[in-house]
Amino acid sequence: MIGKRRLTIITTDRCRATIVLDNVQQRVGREQFFSCLWQSVVGSSRVRLAALIYVNSRYDRKKSMDDQLFIMGTQVDHMVE
Length: 81
Prior knowledge:
Radius of gyration: 14 Å
Number of domains: 1
Order of helices and strands: HHHH
Number of helices: 4
Number of strands: 0
Distance between the termini: 42 Å
Oligomer: single chain
Shape: globular
Structural class: mainly alpha
């Protein structure tokens, strides 16, 4: 039972983090947000997994990449690294 409670807490925290990141993205703009996100992925291994999970959750596999270019941000070299 403790394991299930811990999973619920982790899932809830992840949902809160996603909501916060979505709000920041709306305020600063999608391209700028993802540019900073990729820069943080390159610069810090501690945030890498969480950032990639967030990107995966926001990437719509049903749309073409051309429709979602904002995910690459304004500095494509950071995203490709």
